[in-house]
Amino acid sequence: MTTIIKHGQCPLINSKSNAHIQYDILMNDKGNRFVRLIASSGGGFLSQDRIEVKDIKALLMAVNDNTHFSSTLFNPLFKGKSANNAAFLAAALRAEGVITQSNNHTYKHRILNIDAISLLKPVK
């Protein structure tokens, strides 16, 4: 069984857009956490795959702490073919405090707190 820990909404990374992404953070009976993209108010296709937080962390662990990186880092996490998935996930991860905007570029990211999602408490 999977439980929704948090239903979130965040702006797209593109500051010229007023669109938002809706996402859920889920936890299963074993305590594994997942991020699932739900919808984009600006349209655009997305995959509603459950992305395990440990897989997100594994990708981020391969990035040097001071390095900025592109959303395409997250492409391998998705089965779906939407080009939006990685950027939408990056927006959700920014909203959750896992990553933040790079000082060098609006569309690049830096790691902020790799464990931020793992620290969320389940809603009772």
Which structural class do you get from the secondary structure elements? Answer: alpha+beta
- pLDDT < 50 runs, ≥5 residues: none
Q: Please, how many helices? A: 2
Order of strands, widest sheet: 1-2-3-4
Order of helices and strands: EEEEHEHEE
Mean pLDDT equals 90
What report would you give on this structure?
This protein has 124 residues and is of the alpha+beta class. Helix content is 16%, strand content 31%. The chain has helices at residues 53-61, 85-95, and strands at residues 2-11, 20-28, 33-40, 50-52, 69-70, 99-101, 108-111.
Explain briefly what this protein structure is.
With 124 residues, the protein is of the alpha+beta class.
What's the topology here?
Blueprint: E1 2-11, E2 20-28, E3 33-40, E4 50-52, H1 53-61, E5 69-70, H2 85-95, E6 99-101, E7 108-111
Antiparallel strand pairs: 1-2, 2-3, 3-4, 5-7, 6-7
Name some characteristics of this structure.
124 residues; alpha+beta; globular
